[in-house]
Design goal:
Number of helices: 6
CATH architecture: Orthogonal Bundle
Low-confidence stretches: 11-25
CATH class: Mainly Alpha
Radius of gyration: 20 Å
Largest sheet: none
Shape: globular
Number of strands: 0
Distance between the termini: 67 Å
Strand content: under 5%
Number of domains: 1
Order of helices and strands: HHHHHH
């Protein structure tokens, strides 16, 4: 009886450990449709809102699956002494982020469009990054 109980406990522990380990290696990918490179709001809604939320405060529907709470994008200027950090935003869009929630430098949900930003023609890439950055600047809290 004790041997049977011990084997059952080990099996349950092993199953739980495997389930936990499996969660840490899953990548979050939200399929996105190609958006207009001139519409920063549309790009934000498609690419950023799943994690950062429609309002930019970091509470999107995919946020609970991340390792850390996504950045509140409405406070970027406030955290930078009232100046919107446009060059930092462009850098993150171009090269990714080292924020632990993402698990790697690449944003996990950028899908086929922003995840392969370096493969997009240079003019389209610049237009997308500029308009997305301009939209983020428009949602800053005063």
């Amino acid at each position: 009886m004790l041997k049977r109980l011990l084997l059952t406990a080990m099996a349950v522990t092993l199953a739980a450990a495997m389930g936990y380990a499996d969660q840490s290696t899953k990548k979050i990918v939200i399929p996105v449709d190609r958006t207009s490179p001139t519409d920063g709001r549309m790009m934000y809604t498609s690419y950023c809102a799943p994690c950062h939320g429609i309002d930019g405060r970091g509470h999107g529907p995919a946020a609970p699956a991340l390792r850390a709470v996504p950045t509140d994008l409405t406070g970027l200027a406030k955290a930078n002494h009232g100046k919107f950090p446009d060059s930092h935003i462009i850098t993150v869009l171009q090269f990714g982020s080292e924020i632990p929630a993402h698990g790697s430098a690449q944003m996990p949900v950028w899908g086929p469009i922003l995840g392969k930003m370096n493969q997009v023609n240079a003019q389209d890439r610049q237009l997308r990054m500029s308009n997305l950055s301009r939209y983020l600047e428009s949602i800053q809290v005063k």
